[in-house]
UniProtKB/TrEMBL annotation:
Protein name: Cytidine deaminase
Source domain of life: Bacteria
UniProt KW Transmembrane helix keyword: no
EC numbers, comma separated: 3.5.4.5
Organism: Stenomitos frigidus AS-A4
Annotated GO MF terms: cytidine deaminase activity
InterPro entries: Cytidine_deaminase-like
Length: 141
């Protein structure tokens, strides 16, 4: 089975979803590969109470669970304004926890330090080398 990583096709799927949902002004979205090669996309859910907002990744994570498919790679993109380029966002701590359901070898997009519009594909274990749950056998993969 092919090992999926964050690549240009996945980044482009996230950008396209962002532009479809938020064509003007601020925009963002996430895209994920499942183990079957399917690409799932989703967007941020806003709410009057900020505690109820959901990250870009949440919808695709829920969809993967609904489909009973394993997520292999995830990327999140965002821009501040229509005239600004999309940058890559590392998953927040909560989304890292959600993605860790599928193990610490899930690949995630992280921004290049010198140029945040560019990305690197890293395993969750590389993004979070001291992840709390890896002391248990099932997460040592």
């Amino acid at each position: 089975m092919k090992q999926y990583r964050v690549d240009e096709q996945l980044v482009q799927a996230a950008r396209q979803q962002a532009l479809a949902r938020f064509p003007e002004g601020w925009s963002g979205a996430a895209a994920m590969y499942t183990e079957t090669g399917r690409i799932l996309t989703s967007v941020y859910v806003d709410a009057p109470n900020e505690a109820a907002c959901l990250c870009h990744e949440t919808g695709a994570i829920c969809e993967a669970h609904r489909l009973n498919e394993r997520i292999c790679a995830s990327v999140c993109v965002s821009r501040e304004d229509t005239r600004e380029p999309f940058v890559i966002l590392t998953p927040c701590g909560i989304c890292q926890e959600r993605l860790a359901y599928w193990g610490l070898n899930v690949e995630v997009g992280v921004p290049d330090k010198a140029e945040p519009t560019q990305y690197h594909s890293l395993k969750l274990r590389e993004v979070q080398p001291y992840y709390w749950h890896q002391i248990y056998g099932e997460n040592k993969e």
